[in-house]
Amino acid sequence: MLQLTFTRGLSEDLSSEVKVMKKVKGREAEEKEQAEQQLLKQDLYVESLTKIVEKLTEQIDVYESQVKGQAEDTRAFRLLQTEVSVTQTAVALTF
């Protein structure tokens, strides 16, 4: 009888330990799932930031090209202005 009581107690202890282990395993699986979801969100966020950086880089390239073109136009205009000024001076001196 004593052995039966001892065996039942041991069985109940083992049963409790199994339940606890199952709960722990379930929590670990849940935490792993949450971590994977968080990682996926971070990956999507990084991807969206990368796309934004690419678009901004393209815009910078366009603006730099425009600035170069405007600088060339300005140089050409100043050269033309100088030529007109020289021509005006030459015409003024001939009269």
From TrEMBL:
Give the GO cellular component terms, alphabetically: cilium; cytoplasm; extracellular region
Keyword terms, alphabetized: Coiled coil
Where are the annotated coiled coils located? 46-73
Q: Which GO terms describe its biological process?
A: axoneme assembly; epithelial cilium movement involved in determination of left/right asymmetry; heart looping
PANTHER family (alphabetical): COILED-COIL DOMAIN-CONTAINING PROTEIN 40
What is this protein called in UniProt?
A: Coiled-coil domain-containing protein 40
Q: Which organism is it from?
A: Liparis tanakae
